[in-house]
């Protein structure tokens, strides 16, 4: 059963390709979000990083003051260095930053991995992940 949370969550779906500005530059609504999550997203786009930087700079630059950005990805320097550099360039402030070993939760549905589980056994699958919690600078009063 889902726990009740003391705030309202609203969702908005929007299809876009970060490398094609005409699929996102007319959209403004998502920029009002309180939190942006980039979960295994930067590593996916690293191969097209020059083409996707304009999108990240646009989102981080346009996010409202106080908005949070949660980054979780493979703890490899090539991804974290890219993301940390981008974040610093647009003036995001670090709230917390750490790396940890992540394992799949025991209650995660993993039938699709059955052959790997047979081969490797449970619970050998783990990944080293980097986590960043950042915040768009608040406006000084
Ligand atoms: C590794 S998945 C992570 C998805 C999700 N965050 C999760 O944790 O399940 C990477 C995502 O990046 C999306 N993606 C890849 N290239 C993209 C692009 N050029 N524009 C927008 N999304 C893209 C893929 O469609 C995929 O959903």
TrEMBL record:
Protein known as: Uncharacterized protein
